[in-house]
Design goal:
Strand content: 15-25%
Number of strands: 5
Radius of gyration: 50 Å
Oligomer: single chain
Distance between the termini: 97 Å
Shape: rod-shaped
Length: 203
């Protein structure tokens, strides 16, 4: 084995003595430069250049993934925002609906209004429910009312109406026909009372 190494070394030395030793200095310098550059060039084309292409490709893929993640994060925030807005809208709608009686509650509500009037010292001369007027998610139920009683009693009645848990509005109040009874001025008062009911959307 050592003999082979010696022979190889002798062959290299012989080649250098015969081929290189007699070359001009310029040629020797060029050979040395080539000997230095050749491994560098081989490394660039065989190792560095392919890896650079692969690195650039990976960087491009990374950028695409980062952009996709950014889009997904934004979409997630939008979904969370929309869900919060929807929940808030549903809550507000539920609160508003709670103030509007259902269809089956209307008779008892009108009875309650009549009872409030009588407990306030008023005599009902007329109590006429009108045709309801449907809106988007609720319906107006107007009632024309005529009562007899003192100004104070009318005020007590209207105050109690305003304290109802359901929405009830009063408009077009007119007072007239004063009559003195038992030392009190009795007035005939007419007004329009409007209550509302919740209208469920069609399935």
């Amino acid at each position: 084995m050592n003999i082979d190494k010696v022979k190889i070394q002798e062959a290299i030395n012989s080649f250098l003595d015969e081929k290189v030793a007699y070359l001009k200095p310029l040629h020797k310098a060029m050979i040395c430069i080539c000997a230095i550059l050749l491994p560098c060039v081989a490394f660039y084309f065989l190792s560095y250049s392919p890896k650079t292409v692969e690195i650039n490709k990976l960087q491009s893929q990374q950028k695409q993934l980062e952009d996709e993640i950014t889009k997904l994060e934004k979409a997630s925030r939008e979904i969370t925002k929309h869900r919060a807005e929807m929940a808030e809208t549903k809550l507000m709608f539920a609160k508003a609906s709670a103030l509007l009686p259902q269809q089956q509650e209307i008779p008892s509500l009108l009875t309650s209004i009549s009872d409030i009037g009588q407990n306030s010292g008023l005599d009902f001369l007329s109590f006429i429910p009108k045709n309801e007027m449907r809106k988007e998610f609720y319906a107006d139920i107007p009632v024309d009312i005529k009562v007899s009683g003192t100004y104070h009693n009318v005020g007590v009645f209207l105050d109690k109406i305003s304290d109802l848990s359901r929405i009830v509005t009063v408009s077009d109040i007119n007072m007239g026909g004063p009559k003195l009874q038992a030392g009190e001025m009795i007035l005939e008062t007419t007004f329009s009372l409007v209550t509302y009911r919740f209208v469920e959307s069609a399935p």
